Amino acid sequence: MAEIEWPWQYSFPPFFTLQPHADTRAKQIAAWKSLVLEYYRITKQAVVDVREIHTNPLFNNASINRKLPSEAVLVILEELGKSGNASPLDKTKQRWLVYWHTLEEWGDIIYNWAQENSFTGSVCTFFELTQGEDTSEQEFHGLDTEVLIRSLKTLEAARKAEIISFDDNQGVKFF
């Protein structure tokens, strides 16, 4: 896993408390959004469980003994949701998917790869897309399966692909 370069704010204790002043708070939330997306991109993770955030180094800076409260994490996740970079996995909004690219962007990235590598008209399994040798240099290599499926659904809606099931596998046919 690549090393995270923490921004200066991460070592600034007030960064871990939502600020009351509107302009300061807006800048703080923007910085958190950027940090969350970068962290999940580098670690190739996708799921945030709000109940377990205090075990996550992203929200828990042990070196300054600061933790971001779960209420603040929810505010940040809601903001990420507004920009298309997160969505709740449950009705209680305790588990979220985080996308460092929006689902449409992921769909475009995957579709462009399929076109450039002559996979249009053929089927790729989800495993081949996220774990296969052909994609080892691609940004979507290692992508969470749920994020992959949601991305491919944007391609289905655009009539560029179809998700298919066969035997015990799932795959996608690119058009």
Automatic annotation (TrEMBL):
Keywords: Cytoplasm, Protein transport, Transport. GO terms for cellular component: ESCRT II complex. It is found in: Cytoplasm. GO terms for molecular function: protein homodimerization activity; structural molecule activity. GO terms for biological process: macroautophagy; protein transport to vacuole involved in ubiquitin-dependent protein catabolic process via the multivesicular body sorting pathway. InterPro entries: ESCRT-II_cplx_Vps25-sub, ESCRT-II_cplx_Vps25-sub_N, WH-like_DNA-bd_sf, WH_DNA-bd_sf. Belongs to the VPS25 family. This is Vacuolar protein-sorting-associated protein 25. It comes from Atta cephalotes (Leafcutter ant). The gene is 105620217.
